[in-house]
Amino acid sequence: MKICTSVTTTLLAALLLAVAAGCSKQDTAAGDPAGAEQMAETDLVQIETSMGTITVKLDSVRAPLSVKNFKAYVRAGFYDKTIIHRIENKGMYLIQAGGIQQDRIPKSPLLPAISCESNNGLKNRAGTIGYGRRADPNTATSHFYINYKDNPGFDYDPERGFTGYAVFGEIVDGNDVAEAIANLERVPGSSEPIKQVLIKSAKIIMKKKEAPREKAAPDTTEASQEESM
Predict the structure, then answer these.
(1) In degrees, to the nearest 5, what angle opens at C-alpha 107 toward C-alphas 62 and 97?
(2) Quick one: three-class SS letters along the chain?
(3) CB-CB contact of 147 with 126 (8 Å)
(4) How many C-beta atoms lie closer than 10 Å to residue 56's C-beta?
(5) Which residues pair with 82 in a beta bridge?
(6) 32, exposed or middle or buried, with CB in 10 Å at 0-12, 13-18, 19+?
(7) CA dist., res. 199 & res. 45, Å (int)
(8) Cα–Cα distance, 134 to 218 (Å, whole number)
(9) Residue 111 above 70 pLDDT?
(10) Which of 5, 9, 102, 228 is 20 to 30 Å from 19 by CA-CA measure?
(11) Is residue 34 pLDDT above 70, yes or no?
């Protein structure tokens, strides 16, 4: 009887260890981020509208504050279900969005206004994205515009004491969509398009993180040959 009891106890202990090991592996795979595919943000943002998708590449090197702010609003889903509420085609050529809801009620900004980065070397050329603001240069929050033609009058110009409007990226796909929106008929006497253009969503494009490269072991063949000589 003692032998049977000892064998039974040993088997039970081994079984418990096996179950514990299996649970540990499952917990690691489920709870440890290292066990899952690691994703990283890019500087690409996809803006899906009711008329097509516009993809912009943000310039985080020359406009770091603007890009950080824009990404924060995108992550928060702030632009989802807002509209492109403004089209300008005389003297300035842009479409604007960033905080007007479908019922025309403005959304309140989520974050404090940022400093204007217009003196960053980026110009208001066709296909670029910039920040709207009030008369005070440092009042940009969520509203952004897309230049569908060159707007040199928006550029930083110290000679005439003009701060300008900060560009922080450019369209890499969907220029045709921006131009189609720009060509919409407007409400008479207004810059508002008659046809409502909805921003269905705005999201940051993700990519798979690259695994860190292992350092190659130093080649000691030549040194070994010299030592042997």
Answers:
(1) 50
(2) CHHHHHHHHHHHHHHHHHHHHHHHHHHHHHHCHHHCCCEEEEEEEEEEECCEEEEEEECCCCCHHHHHHHHHHHHCCCCCCEEECEEECCCCCEEEECCEECCCCECCCCCCCECCCCCCCCCCCCCEEEECCCCCCCCECCCEEEECCCCHHHCCEHHHCECCCCEEEEEEECHHHHHHHHCCCECCCCCCECCCEEEEEEEEEEEECCCCCCCCCCCCHHHHHHHHC
(3) yes
(4) 25
(5) 101, 199
(6) exposed
(7) 13
(8) 59
(9) yes
(10) 5
(11) no
For the segment 158-185, what is each residue's pLDDT rounded down to a tens digit? 999 999 999 999 999 999 999 999 999 9
Residue 127 backbone zone (phi > 0: left; psi -120 to 50: alpha; other: beta)? left
CA distance to 84, 100, 102, 125, per residue, from 106 (Å): 12, 4, 9, 28
- Write the burial class of residue 178 (CB in 10 Å: 0-12 exposed, 13-18 middle, 19+ buried): buried
Read off the tokens for 35. 């066990």
- Could you tell me the CA-to-CA distances from 148 to 32, 169, 170, 225 in Å, in that order? 46, 13, 11, 67
| Structural domain boundaries in the chain | 39-207
* 29 vs 48, residue with greater confidence: 48
Residue 184 CA to residue 154 CA, distance in Å, equals 23
Laid out side by side, the sheet with 167-173 consists of: 82-84, 197-208, 39-49, 52-58, 167-173, 128-131, 144-147, 94-97, 86-88
Q: Which residue reads 């090197």 in tokens? A: 61
Q: What's the CATH code, domain 39-207?
A: 2.40.100.10
